[in-house]
């Protein structure tokens, strides 16, 4: 599948055309580009902008579409009214009716303006009526709709106003609203659907808008419905944030290769659950800061971790190329975070869910899971109930249950070999997981964290 990205260049590599290319390629599609602007940019901000002449932008689009073609087009930074006119004209001449995802980039993460004020009218008049999807964040939606957006109710009103501009679908991103939950709205003529997920607290979110729009465009180019493309793209962006390499002094980039790092990541036809999932973080790649380590050292630490994984795999009977994946289920985010760090330290891939229903939903989608580690006592569905449901749906999947009190009733219900005591001790957790995965009962605990 072919996706044409029309956007500005980010010399720091985290956003713009660089994020577009990496995202499109991560999903197995072919990326072609038309560069609208060059920026001197790093994680702290945009230091200079050089606008590409509009006629040259149009020329790039024309030669790509006339030769290679495109199954979808995504636009990002367009800069000014003249460039918007050139892009709209080139698409009308060379790809009328093509799937078009418009990310109305107006301001960079560091605060620099990327769209001149007089360009908003051209965007509204020329591109929105021929687009398939508009993906504004809240500040961009306020500019386009003329409304103030301070809560989810206002998001609904703004989404309706944006539809009246002639765009058939709007994905309004709610990340700028405060709170522990992030709400995105997908609005069409058929109604408005809210996608809610826990906020990932991180400063490494540079390029999220570009990445999301490109991921959606790629999904639609691959034949996915709009809703499924949005679901997959949202999960991908969340996973890429969670696995961010932690580089730079400011708003760092995502890890765009997350989708190709692990065979358990769902394919184009298997969009993941819309909410409740804290996405997969690849084995040996921990984006959380370590004591005494600066975030700028994360890339070196990741390289050291990868170098040590062969030794760790030999110790634990694991495949170096395909580390075991553990589905971690606990309703306490603090416990999940600590446990995930310990498991990642040991070289395992981790997928997190905050309740049993979400875990069962993930398993039903065929996502690779080698071991289930769940809290014994959770609201809604206990670990024991989850174990029974897993035994019926995924027989043979090893299960470990965690508890803070190994009383006789718990031991009788679960068995000592499947019970792990909290708070976890690194050595004991490593042994229980190793044995559950079919490894030896003894062995040296090798930490990937150096």
Question: Which key terms come to mind for this protein?
Answer:
450 residues; alpha/beta; UDP-N-acetylmuramoyl-L-alanine:D-glutamate ligase; Rossmann fold; 6-stranded mixed β-sheet; elongated
Structural classification: alpha/beta
| SS strand fraction | 15-25%
Helical percentage = 25-40%
Mean pLDDT: 79
Structural overview:
By secondary structure, this protein is of the alpha/beta class. The protein folds into 2 domains: 2-262, 3-Layer(aba) Sandwich (UDP-N-acetylmuramoyl-L-alanine:D-glutamate ligase), CATH 3.40.1190; 279-436, Response regulator (Rossmann fold, 3-Layer(aba) Sandwich). Helix content is 38%, strand content 19%. It contains 14 helices and 15 strands. Strands 3-2-1-4-5-6 form a 6-stranded mixed beta sheet. Strands 10-12-11-13-14-15 form a 6-stranded mixed beta sheet, sandwiched between helices. A 3-stranded antiparallel beta sheet has the order 7-8-9, with helices on one face. α1 packs across α7, α3 (81-94) packs parallel to α4 and α7 (208-221) packs antiparallel against α8. The longest helix is centred in the C-terminal third of the chain and has 19 residues, at 298-316. The two termini are 41 Å apart. The model is unreliable at 259-322 and 443-450 (pLDDT under 50).
Give me a quick take on this structure.
The protein has 450 residues and is an alpha/beta fold. It has 2 domains: 2-262, Ribokinase (UDP-N-acetylmuramoyl-L-alanine:D-glutamate ligase, 3-Layer(aba) Sandwich), CATH 3.40.1190; 279-436, Rossmann fold.
């Amino acid at each position: 599948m072919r996706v044409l990205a029309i956007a500005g260049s980010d010399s720091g590599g985290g956003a713009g055309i660089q994020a577009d290319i990496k995202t499109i390629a991560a999903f197995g599609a072919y990326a072609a580009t038309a560069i609208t602007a060059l920026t001197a940019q790093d994680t702290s901000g945009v230091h200079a902008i050089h606008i590409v002449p509009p006629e040259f932008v149009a020329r790039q689009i024309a030669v790509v579409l006339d030769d290679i073609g495109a199954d979808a087009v995504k636009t990002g930074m367009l800069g000014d009214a003249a460039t918007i006119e050139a892009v709209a004209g080139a698409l009308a001449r060379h790809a009328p009716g093509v799937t078009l995802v418009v990310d109305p980039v107006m301001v960079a993460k560091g605060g620099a303006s990327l769209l001149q004020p007089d360009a908003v009218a051209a965007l509204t008049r020329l591109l929105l009526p021929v687009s398939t999807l508009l993906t504004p964040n809240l500040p961009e939606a306020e500019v386009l709709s003329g409304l103030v957006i301070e809560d989810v109710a206002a998001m609904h009103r703004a989404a309706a106003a944006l539809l009246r501009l002639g765009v058939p679908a709007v994905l309004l991103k709610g990340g700028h609203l405060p709170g522990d939950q992030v709400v995105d709205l997908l609005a069409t003529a058929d109604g408005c659907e809210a996608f809610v997920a826990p906020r990932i607290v991180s400063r490494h979110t540079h390029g999220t808008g570009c990445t999301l729009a490109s991921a959606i465009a790629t999904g639609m180019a691959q034949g996915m419905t709009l809703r499924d493309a949005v679901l997959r793209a949202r999960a991908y962006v969340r996973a890429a944030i969670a696995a961010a390499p932690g580089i730079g002094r400011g708003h760092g980039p995502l890890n765009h290769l997350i989708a190709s790092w692990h065979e358990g990541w769902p394919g184009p036809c298997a969009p993941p659950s819309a909410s409740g999932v804290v996405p997969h973080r690849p084995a040996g790649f921990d984006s959380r800061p370590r004591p005494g380590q600066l975030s700028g050292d994360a890339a070196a630490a990741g390289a050291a971790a990868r170098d040590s994984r062969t030794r760790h795999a030999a110790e634990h009977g694991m495949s170096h190329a395909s580390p075991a994946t553990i589905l971690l289920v606990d309703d306490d985010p603090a416990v999940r975070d600590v446990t995930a760090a310990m498991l990642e330290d040991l070289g395992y891939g981790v997928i997190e869910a905050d309740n049993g229903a979400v875990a069962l939903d993930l398993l039903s989608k065929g996502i690779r899971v080698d071991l289930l580690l769940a809290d014994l006592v959770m609201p809604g569905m206990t670990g024991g109930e989850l174990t029974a449901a897993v035994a019926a749906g995924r027989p043979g999947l090893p299960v470990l249950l965690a508890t803070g009190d190994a009383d006789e009733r718990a031991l009788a219900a679960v068995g000592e070999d499947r019970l792990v005591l909290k708070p976890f001790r690194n050595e004991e957790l490593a042994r229980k997981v190793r044995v559950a995965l079919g490894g030896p009962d003894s062995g040296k605990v090798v930490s990937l964290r150096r």
